[in-house]
Amino acid sequence: MSTTGQGPLAGIKVIELAGIGPGPHAALLLADLGADVVRVQRPRQLPGFIERPQWRGRTIVEADLKNPADVAKVLDLVEKADVLLEGFRPGVTERMGLGPDDALARNPRLIYGRMTGWGQYGPMADRAGHDINYISLTGVLNAIGRKGERPVPPLNMVGDFGGGSMFLVTGVLAALVERATSGKGQVIDAAMVDGALALSHFVWGMRGVGLWSDERGENLLDTGMAFYDTYETADGKYMAVGAIEPQFYEQLLAGLGIDPEGLPQQLDPDGQEQLRKLFTEKFKSKTRDEWTAIFEGTDACTTPVLTFTEATQNEHIRAREGLIEIEDVVQHAPAPRFSRTQGGTPTPPPSAATPIEDVWAQ
Q1: DSSP symbols for 154-220
Q2: To 10 degrees, what angle do helices 201-208 and 192-199 make?
Q3: Is 25 a catalytic residue?
């Protein structure tokens, strides 16, 4: 077993055809939920380096997918699997002899999950790309950044993981539920461009009723409003302010020691620069830790901006045990939490491959 055998997906067998980014992340999430995940990768990739932490909770087998004999061994595994995940460009697994038709012929109950940036069809389906490219065509990248400045990539959270692996996992789980009724597998076309559009539904909705402009930095959630922004403190660090609701905004003003009398209305577009200047001056008067203490225990929706290193010591994250350490690498604990079928701590990534013939042998 590649996992502790605990969790709501205990007993579900998953084959992961090795890739990068969202595919391995989806496999990791399924393993965290208790699935028995077998990663099929090229020989001589172990022990791995930058990608190694993403291999937690797995069994790893080695196969040359250009070798028909090794492909035949993978198809033997397919007969015993519930799910197969792959992240190649459209048509690649078909040419290997591991495409959906080949796999479902061997196992009609198989859920075949395909993870790509552009999807299995469309004018750009066979093009290369990365997170920044997939979200650039959806309007999302254009929306992130300050007024008059260029768009800022949100790391690779929106395309690869938010719009990619999370939607692949959602598709797998939905297909497993449906299979319980139909007894049949199916193919999931998970495209990061689709997922990014789904993640931005709230903004599309605001745009549809005239409450969102294509101009960056002029909207409710893109630093267009002074009460939803970050501010530098006296020690060169930052506070995050999200005091949207009037009752929370009132507490923000109180914490900053600002008399609301005579101020522009909270949502007045013409008053935002005045408010921003006032907030900027106030936050610069104290250190981040001093402001953190002032707003602690309030509903001002004002919190310190922490580095990854600082996050490891955050009281709330520590109380929830949101971070764990595996092979000296700090990383997230399995999420979400379950009241009855909580999984165990993920097993470390393997350092040696398991013979493919030994996997699911019984």
Answers
A1: -TTIIIIIIIIIHHHHHHHHHHHHHHHHH---EEEEEEHHHHHHHHTHHHHHHHHTT---SSTT-ST
A2: 60
A3: no
CB-based contact 173:206 (threshold 8 Å): no
Which contiguous run of DSSP H or E holds residue 321?
Answer: none
The pLDDT confidence band at residue 4, using thresholds 50, 70 and 90, is low
Terminal Cα-to-Cα distance of the chain (whole angstroms): 12
Tokens of 135: 């979200």
**In the chain, where the domains are located:** 13-199+323-358, 228-310
- Cα 128 to the center of its chain, rounded Å: 21
Q: Which tokens belong to 319?
A: 């109380």
Rounded to whole angstroms, how far apart are CA atoms 347 and 5? Answer: 11
CATH topology of domain 13-199+323-358: Rossmann fold (3.40.50)
CA–CA distance, 21 with 160 (Å, rounded to integer): 6
Q: Is 130 a catalytic residue?
A: yes
Catalytic residue among 76, 102, 130, 189: 130
Report CA-CA distances (Å) from 291 to 92, 227, 231, 317. Answer: 54, 15, 11, 19
Of residues 32, 160, 194, 229, which has the active-site annotation? 160
- Answer CATH for 228-310 from 3.40.50.300, 3.90.1150.30, 2.60.40.420, 3.30.1540.10: 3.30.1540.10
Query: pTM (2 decimals)?
Result: 0.95
Span 144-169, pLDDT tens digits: 999 999 999 999 999 999 999 999 99
